[in-house]
Each structure stands twice: as structure tokens, then as C-alpha cells.
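Example record for the data management plan.
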Amino acid sequence: MHDDKPRALTLTAPSAKRCPASVTHHGITLSDPYAWLRAHNWQEVMRDPAKLDSEIRAYLDAENRYTEAALSSTTALQAQLFAEMKARLKEDDSTVPTPDGPFEYASNYVKGGQYPELRRRPRGGADQTSMVLLDGNAEAKGKRYWQLGGSAHSHDHKMLAYSVDEKGSELYTIRIRDMETGRDLDDVIPDTRGSVVWANDGRTFFYVRLDQNHRPLFVYRHTVGTPAEDDVLVYEEKDTGFYVGVTHTQSSKFILIDVHDHQSNEIYLIDADAPTEAPRLVAARVFGHEYGVEHHGERLIILTNSGGATDFRICEVPLTQLGIEHWKEIVPHKPGRLILEAVAFKEHLARLEREDSLPRIVITRLSDGTQHAIAFDEEAFSLGMAAGYEFDTRSLRFTYSSMTTPAEVYDYDMETRARVLRKRQEVPSGHNAGDYVTRRLFAPAPDGETVPVSILYKKGTPLDGSAPLFLYGYGAYGISIPASFSTTRFSLVDRGVIFAIAHVRGGKDKGYRWYTDGKLENKPNTFSDFIAAGAHLVEQGFTKKGRIIANGGSAGGMLMGVVANMAPALFLGIIADVPFVDVLNTMLDKDLPLTPPEWPEWGNPIDSAREFEIIRSYSPYENVAAKPYPHIFAYGGLTDPRVTYWEPAKWVAKLRDNNTSGNMVLLKVNMDAGHGGASGRFEALKELAVDYAFALLIADKLDAAPTGRTAPA
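Corresponding structural encoding:
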């Protein structure tokens, strides 16, 4: 062990001043002495970080200096980890070109480049025939932050609409580029969500604009060559608990306006050949009803949970009679088989579903209903569909990987069932899947459920409990964490750390009920699942109590805060990235960007005393108490509109006041980024290297040499 391992203990940590502040709800008074860290002008700060109050900035800067000093013994390790992770990236990597009529579109990186290039070539053409449409490295030059939000080419292949965020605040500005000349037009549209959907005339597109509180509530129509001030408001959502999004059917016949919260939605159709016509409602929102729409001929194909179909079914309905009473079932509901996505092509329907915690793709021939599944053999894997641009095609692109198998991209003939490997992820520094083991365990939860746990470790790693274990979790919004390939993890695994993912409730890993069993009043299941997963890994001999380093971000960061309070002795350390830890205060602040739409996920503590008490019972910030906490490393972004910077800042300040263990409690705030961290693929790796260096430091593996095929620094 390095003598300077507990360096933070010899340094003087910043001490946030305590200012009396309190609010009362439902007869309960909440004291919040660190409320002053919330900038009163946070909306301005999102747009211009220089507007941050000087006292708050000074405190955050002090925290960053303290963290840098506390981790100074890992400086060389951080550089080595970065070099390893960078060496596993193919620096001139590119996507498989996606065909659309006479052209194919792709993105690629150049050696040394942080940002992608968008490219186009003639269909079937060689690489040297491609032209650069947008050079991310040139666009980002001289900017502290640059993030491409989205891009879409017009159907006549003349115009490229693209959006960029230059603050990390997810306020995207849309511009239009003439693809023949390579020049941007005068059109500039600020404060958008970032995505663009073109109508079929090549002159009109639709986009979502945000309100002053950062909420996507407005759909606008823009005509190329006209000022943004003249754009037409097509739809405005009056309920701030709902957001709007814009997309299109695979057929490109309809533009879709999707109005949604986390458990209900409604969809409007706009004829892409008549973009000035008023939107047409498919089915009005009903609490708990979620549906998606595809188009095929004279009908819509609808993925829906109506009629008690908890794990979804697929229906069809004539375009002339959209009412839900006319919906006819074509793929019935099967409990435990969750249909995640359905895409309608001219001759086939492709659906992605999950059963027994594993995904699969099922193809149906629309002419006669014949169906088949695409089969795979590994015990745990990740699978995704990429529908592409075309409707009249028999080719479906899908991606496959596992925790040991690099990502593979296939084009699959839905009629002949032939699959063609188009790309296998390259690991330039070398990767031998046979050197690693991936397993799937099921941990018993306190209520009798079993929690899937995916595990990755290097062959030869001792399974006697001596190895440290890195346990990742999320568990919210129905988002499932796939057992997919990640090159970065091998910097831990090659040093003898076991990597595991706990597929806790709140995701949809075991069907839709897995989600509902981890939200609202059932939210505590997420936390007990994670603790149960950790305890089971100890019981099975993978590690020991107090040797687990837990990691989660955003809502997964809230999970980190809760388990630190509930079971601190189980963990050696906690890494909480952009952690949603001030849950109660945030859900009580209806003016914050995400609060009203988040009430269906967590509860509305303003209106409901019961939901107030449920959130109060687990909210990490409220439940910090005098106890021996594990090492904690929290990360935040100054311009983050999703989890505001003051959440981890307040949490760390309160932890410092209450921690009795003497372990490190560290905060790092990126003053030039938001929720997604640093922009640029290499800068993001540097941030991850700090996380991993912290983990290796506290696990007493500061000098552990990697045993894999990793290029030296």
C-alpha cells in the first residue's frame, strides 16, 4: 500500500458555510443549510456559465483543487489508464454506411480527432468517393465545449440540418448546410432540443423548442431560407408534466409528434407530403397508456400496452378509423415477453423484445404472418436494431455484443435469413475474448425476487473473496443496462478487479413489471435489489464485504447515495456521477426543468403527503447521518440541466459534516460541461480515468500492472 493513500486525510477539505434555510410541507419542516449553493439565476448560468455567483464559483473551485490534491498520487495512473483506454479505440473508426436512395451516409473519426465527421458517398461507392458534409473537429476548434446534437438530410439529398450545443446545457442551435456547396445558409434556430425531421418537399422541417425553464414544450415548422422568428408553432403542450418530441414513421409518410411523460403518451400525425396541414390525433392520452406508431399501406401498426397488455402487444388500425376501438391485435400480449420496439418495412415487421432478461429480434412476413427469431448462443449479450433510412428493403441492420465479445454489425436479409457481417469492432491494442469469463447470476432479493447480475472477470482472477469488485447499477425510467462490450472496463478487469452489473428493479430487464416494481412507492426495491446483489456476490466468493466499489450516474447516482446511507459497510467506495441525490428538494421545486415530468416516476411531494413521506424516507441528502461512510467520489457538471450541479455539491458538504470514518469524500465539478461530462471522445476518457484511478487507489491496486494486451503509455 502506498503511504500516501489516505492523502485526503492530511489535507484540509473545503467547508461549505451553513446558512439557515427551511421549508415546510405537510407539517414537516425541512432544514437545508446548503441551499445557498443553488444559484438564483440558474437559467442564466445554463446559457452563460460566467454568470455564476462568485461565492459559489469559489467554493466549487476549492472542491476541485481539493480533489486534485487528494488524488495527486494517482496522476501517473490516470495517464496510464487514459493511454490504455485510448489504445483500445480505433482512432480512425467509422460506422457502416447506411443506404438511402442514391447515396450512403456514415460518420467517422480521424486519427487524433475528438469529434466525428459526417460523410456521404454514392451508393455502393468506395471509401475514397465519400465527401465530408460536416467536420466536427473543424467546427469545434477553439471551443471549450462542442457537442453535435443531431443531423438529418433532406429527402432530396440537398440539405443537411444539424444542431450543436456549445455550453453543455443541452440548448442546441440548428443550422442548415447546402451539401453541394458545403456552406451554411443564414438560417439559425437557437434553444432547440436538437433533433430535426424533414417533410418530403425538402424545404420544410419540424423541430422542438424549449421554454425558459428548459422544457421541450413546443413543436415548430421551419421553411428553409426564412428567419426563425417566422417559424410556425404547430403544437404547444400546456401541461408542464409532459414533453414533446418529433420523429417519423419508417415509411417517411408521416411525421409524428409524441407527447409523453414516463407512463403515458399521445401521438399526432402530420402528412409528410402536406406539412402545413394540422396534426391529426391517433389516440388521446390516457393515464398509464403508452403506444408507438408505424405506417404500412392504408393502416397504422401500433405497439401498445392497452387492454391489459403489460408487456405490450401489436395492433393494426385503418387510417380512416384511428379510434382505439378499431385497433385489431396482430401480435398478442405474452406476459414476461416485453416488446421493446417494432419497425414496419414494406414486406416485413421487425420487433425487438426481451424475455428471461435476454433480447431477441423477431421477423414477421406481413403477407402471411410467418415469423422467425434471429438466434444467438451466448449466456448474456446485448442486441439492437438499426432500421436505417429505407422502407422498401429486405435488409435489417442489427448490432450484437457481449461483455467479452466486441460489437458486431450485421445486415440481415429478412426473407432469406442470410446474415452478412459488415463490421467487427477493432481493439487495436489487442483483445482475446478467451482470456475473459462472463457469467449471469441471480441474486435473491428480500421479497423473494431474483435480481440478474452480469459478471466479467479475467481468467485467473482469484475467486476466493480477495478481489475487489466494481458493481454498476442504474434502475430507473425502465432503462435496462445491457450486458454489452466496453473496451474501458478492461483497465479494471486486467488489474484483477471483477466487474459486475446489477440489473435492479426500475429497469425493464425482466419485463415491464420490473420497471413498475421499482418506481413510486416501490422505489425502495431498487435499493434493496442492489444491496442484495452485492451481498450475493460476497456470499458466492467473488469478493468480500467492504471490497465493493459501487458506481452509478444520474438516477443511478441517486441509487449510490441511498445505498451509502443504507449499507455503508458493504462498500469500499462509491462513485456517483452527476448524482440525483437531492430528490425531495428537487421534486418540491416545480420550476426546475425536469420536476413536473418526473412526478410519475418518483411521486409528487407537493400535492401528496404520502408521496412526500416515501421520497423523504430514502432521499440521499435528507438521510445523511452520523455514520462511517465508505470513500465517496461525486462528479457534477456546471451546466447540467438534468441533475443540477448543486445536488452533488450539497450532498458532499453534508457528508463531510456527518462522516465518522475518515474516508475520502471528494467532489469534482466540470465547469465547462453538463450532464454528459466533457465533450470529445478523448476528454471523456480522461474523466473516466479519474473514476477508475480513484477505484484502484482505494482498492490498494495503485501499482497493479494490467495483465491484458494493453499498449503502454
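Summary line stored alongside the record: The domain at 7-87+439-698 is CATH 3.40.50.1820 (Rossmann fold).
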